Predict the structure.
Amino acid sequence: MTTYLVTGGAGFIGSNFVRHLLTSEPDCRVVNLDKLTYAGNLGNLADLAENTRYRFVEGDICDRDLLEVLFTKEQFSAVVHFAAESHVDRSIHGPAEFIQTNIIGTFALLETARKYFESGQNQNFRFLHVSTDEVYGSLGETGLFSETTPYDPHSPYSASKASSDHLVSAYFHTYGLPTLMTNCSNNYGPYQFPEKLIPLIINNALQGKELPVYGDGKNVRDWLYVVDHCQAILTVLKSGRLGETYNVGGNSEKQNIEVVHTICDILDEVASPLPDNSSRRSLIRFVTDRPGHDRRYAIDASKIKNELGWEPTVDFSGGIRETVEWYLTNPEWVEAILSGSYRDYYDKMYKDR
């Protein structure tokens, strides 16, 4: 039986990938290693708790002893590495954790995987590192990020991810570790932690709270539905050329304010009206932009399409409606996330901006 190690599998994208993997490959096992920081939530995978093909391990990817025990015991066929500190605002206020997890943690994982691979225990082993388009910096009004775009990170988060990308590449070229890498655009969908734009706007709009939008709201992102991303990752893992990077995008460029307007309009249509019957657009409040805020990201995903036949299947209009409906039908998940620590963070980010 094929056994996968998924790091950070209790997070947003990781949990969706674990579920996708178990559904797509009925003969596989998945070991989910997650530290359960603020963004890791076992509730994301509560329905898998009794699945005999799924094992959860609470632990840190920086823990080399733990990693060596897991590799030896489980005899992994592949690693899919999601575990990372991933929110730009948090990296601005506390960069040290990003350096530790994203760089030191990735190094520890690579070293353990290298020793395992060199021991000959599994010559078909693969190591897939999941990264971000933010490593490329910011685009002007035109152009797209390709796999050959020079790195130009602008935040502690993107710099730490860029560093981890370079480490993964170095381990392929120096040691022959069979690595693969994906750099994706902004994800959205079920189980996303509510500090991110889309769930933040959904939750606030449902509660009639102000909707904070950075700057003039015209920063552009390419939006990728998380299930499409999971399919892309599995495609690269199965068929990608070793040592290669594949950009994964949703072909859905939107200004942030467009995204906020769309969510407001859907909620005005399907949710209970505000007490004064006004549109939820009236809740929008422009706040001071964050430092180093990249203006535009856009992905050229032609390589993964031409080489591996993958392209997104969910357009933004359909995906965002499905996402809003998921949050509407899962209020208990949202309530469990909105803890005191999250409220403290929210006040710190937006109260005085």
User: Anything to note?
Assistant: The domain at 3-190+224-253 is CATH 3.40.50.720 (Rossmann fold).
